[in-house]
Amino acid sequence: MLAKSTSKSQALAAVQHFVETEKRIPQLPQILLRVEATLDNPGAGGALLAKVILEDPALTAQVLKVANSTFYNPLGNKVNTVSRAIVVLGFDNIRRLVLGLSVSRMLTLVPRWSAYRSLWRHSLAVGLLARDLARLKNVADTEVVFVAGLLHDVGKFILGHLHGREYAEILERSFREPDFDLCRAENELFFCDHQSAGVVLAKSWGLP
Q1: Could you report the per-residue pLDDT of 73-82, keeping only the tens digit for each?
Q2: In terms of residue numbers, what domain contains 145?
Q3: Are residues 92 and 145 in the same domain?
Q4: How many Cα atoms occupy the beta-carbon half-sphere of 156 within 13 Å?
Q5: Are 89 and 72 in contact, with CB atoms under 8 Å apart?
Q6: Of 62, 80, 103, which residue sits at a domain end?
Q7: Residues 191, 18: Cα–Cα separation, whole Å
């Protein structure tokens, strides 16, 4: 947790510095969106999907680990390549793995207080609901909608890391009091609201 900022520009600079230097912040949108786009492309096969997966070492390791598990590989035949792992697991399980890994990465941003765990559950629920609604409306890129819903409050995680318990207290209040103006409280206390912090992170991810 850092010293409290005294101006809007100083607060945004602190957010920018955190985003640029915090090594635990994952590049979630890129790998999730690229894998989803590949899976949703009827012309893309396993070879292209393998190429995308291989660009992410952590995802590659997880795919191989699961493909070699006793559940998917009861005979113990060694799976040494991502291409073979895709055959063993299937596209649906690959999709679930990518989502699961993305979620676990985002959880590294969640401080220990219960307010942030509640926030994460809320964010995941919004993402899933947004995706279901997109499917009902026949939206083509439903996974893009899912990620947008998942990340809609990501700026709150950033402020949580920067301001710790003090931010957790007003976050918990926002859960208890539906009329509580969280953005106003954030600006009064920290000179930066979660929407502005989210914009900084989204730009670092290359999102529109």
Answers
A1: 999 999 999 9
A2: 8-24+109-208
A3: no
A4: 24
A5: yes
A6: 103
A7: 16
